[in-house]
Amino acid sequence: QQMAHRLQDWARVGEQTETVIAIKAHVGGALHTPEDALWLLKQADSKWIRLNYDFSHFQLWGFELEKSLEQLLPYTVFIHVKDGRGDPKRVQFLLPGEGNIDYDQYAAILAKHKYNGMVVVEVSGQIHKKPGYNPEKAARKSYEHLSSAFKVNGPS
């Protein structure tokens, strides 16, 4: 309820500034299921409050990609992609392609639902804070893994 009340304040700011504010479910946070995200959006009841969808957080709770996308895509303004390994208590975030998310399926579902928003690679602090992290190498590796899936299966 406290989050819902604060989000209503944010919605007023969004309306005043004509700025969409995106919230994100997180595996380690109070908001971590698709149902929670939908409930919170309904409480805000504002076109200025939308979602940032990131399947890696839902995956670690055992949610299915297609079902969670179908639930949340109508309210999603952009998508973060990364992989994850572990469970809600032992989370390890990875670059796309280092885990087991099926990006061919992901891109096909987005195309099926005519999603035309941004899809952005998120490089977790668990990755970029490691000694020797190379952002160019991470970008190239992510692009190489995602480009074929989105060229062949993704939205146009």
Helix content: 40-55%
Sheet of most strands? 4 strands, parallel
Q: What string gives the helices and strands in order?
A: HEHEHHEEEHEHH
Strand order, main sheet: write it out.
1-2-3-6
Multimerization state:
single chain
Give the CA-based shape. globular
Q: Average pLDDT value?
A: 92
Beta strand count: 6
End-to-end CA span: 39 Å
Kindly provide the radius of gyration, computed on alpha-carbon positions and rounded to a whole number of angstroms. 16 Å
Please state roughly what percent of the residues sit in beta strands, choosing from under 5%, 5-15%, 15-25%, 25-35%, 35-45% or over 45%: 15-25%
Question: Number of helical segments?
Answer: 7
Summarize the entry for a quick read.
The protein is of the alpha/beta class. It has seven helices and six strands, in the order αβαβααβββαβαα.
